What does this fold into?
Amino acid sequence: GLHWPINAIMLLNIQTLGYDYTQGPMGAWNFACFGATAGVLFLAWRERDKQMRQTAIGGLAAGLLGGISEPSLYGIHLRFKRIYPRMLVGCLVGGLIIGIGGGVKTSAFVFTSLLTIPAFSSMGLYAVAVLAAFVTAMVLVILSGYRTPEQAAAAVAAGVPVADLEGPMSEASADTLVAAAATKAAGEAGVATEIKSPLDGTLIALSEVPDPVFGKGIMGPGVAIEPSGNTAYAPGSGVVVAAQPTGHAFGLLLDSGVEVLIHIGIDTVKLKGDGFDVKVAKGDRVTAGTPLVSFDPKVIQDAGYSLVTPVIILNAKKFGPIEPVESGEINVGATILTVAPVPEPIESGL
It folds into this structure.
């Protein structure tokens, strides 16, 4: 909003000179802003992030048709700070084109949008400048992303919308939330949570997963399983907060408050559900051993994907140490992780 006093200068220029020369460069900024939003929209569409897609569509429409940048700024850019440096590069490119081309003028006070391009002279130079600003910012956002590595890992690698992973309690059904809340305090009351194996197979360290997003623990601590069976089961009692229709990933909020992600195979989201038979839906109440999904190992392997299944604790920071069991053969229902309760606060002796 600090740019609004410049509007008075624009109006004064038009009144005294008959034209204004500052609105053109500001148009380069506006279109760089809209281009960054277009980049976010492209990524949201590719990642099937419905919430961000809707936000970006609204911001882009308001910008391109009305010259209004606030929906983009406050709805997206200030939430994801990686965007702004990319947007500024677009501003620079557009501004340089206008400057090298000798500048643009307008005799009207307008909001810079697609509809007001004819108000500028030379119109061709201005159109090239704002297009360059738009495309530069859009491409840079697409190439570099707009989320932090943790958020990008959650959205892209798991194929689960970030909103589902960051706020699972907000969208679960009322009945299942009540059931989960009834015992969620267990983790805060000094009771450890045992995470049961969702699969038969061989337990391996998370660092051995052939994917850096999981292997480096970006999404959280956990273990991985090389499955020998073809069905994944719930690792504890709780609520299904994310059940992908493709069958490759499930998020569960256990009664103790622990959030668990089970990701069947690596990059299996690309199979688009082929070889998977989902048994549960988002909001379902499950107990340890409830079938979540059946899958065809041959379909997955024939497509060139690994069957290694990470089991991740998404909200590990809310609890104490997380201890995995030693690697080796494992059966469904055996403990694979122990999540310590919330550490007791240290009381001051003063």
